[in-house]
Amino acid sequence: MAEVPCRRIMVVDDDVFILEVMEELLRPEGIEVVAAVSGDACIAALEKGFRGFILMDIMMPKKDGWETIEEMIDRDLMEGNVVAMLTARDVPDRELEQMKEHVIDYITKPFEADEIVAIVKGYLEYLA
Amino acid sequence: MEYTAPSGQDSRTIVVIGSSTGGPRTLEIVFAQFPLVDAAIIIVQHMPHYINSAFCRHLTDISCMEARIGEDGESIEHGTIYVAPGDVHLKLLANRTIRLFDDEKVQSVRPSIDVAMTSLERNGNDRFVGVVLSGMGSDGADGIRHIKELGGVTLAQTLRTCAIHAMPRAAFETGRVDRMLPPEGIRERIIQIAGIL
Hints:
The complex is a heterodimer of chains A (about 130) and B (about 200). Chain A is an alpha/beta fold and about 130 residues long.
């Protein structure tokens, strides 16, 4: 079983602004942010050994969040990770129905700074 | 409906909480500083199996209840939270003994909330509470219907407080939910029904 680090998360989003905001919010809390600008970058980080909490944007070019999770499952890279989806949509995607054992939360953008920090810290407790 | 205290010494109060995507955020509010209550609480949370232990440890840390992963053959006791382990279904045998089954997924999940809730049966003065929290799909709706048929109390999370409101909505649409409550209300109602040890 993969060992799960407790104070590090990966944010997967093609929007660099979101990546920067997450780093600004979480670094002062002592949480390291691994930034991945695409699904492929996420897979590459997982292959290099990242395990932990992942905030995954759904709508990304080339490979969306759901396709990235499918690839994580296919490549046996899911074990040791907890994934929450980031979305701008009010209505949850149908894909979630098949992924609910893998997706612990579904966070709608825009989010309040305090809210996202509390959510991340909460899930890091589950991974501690 | 209001419950009267169980008359038999061997009776049980069993609370089954079904939770999926976004549910941990609700559980955090429900169980923060949650007192030691006179009930056995079963949590069926859809989650990866490898966080079961940490999930239990966290619930134990934030509440006055001991939370542990339910084991096959284990007798349930009041004052304890039993978390359904990942990748197996959890049933209660005669409302007393945890049984784990490696059956097919139900509604694409294992453990299934419906499987756990519908395993409850009328037995002496046993009392039941069924709760459905945030999540996708309709797992828990059949379970709520069953618990209501047993005369239990049924609760679901208010839709506006859910990350995903499909599960509590499906439960509500059965017409068998007594009350839709926010996480704080669910917490207070469970404490009120169970009583503090």
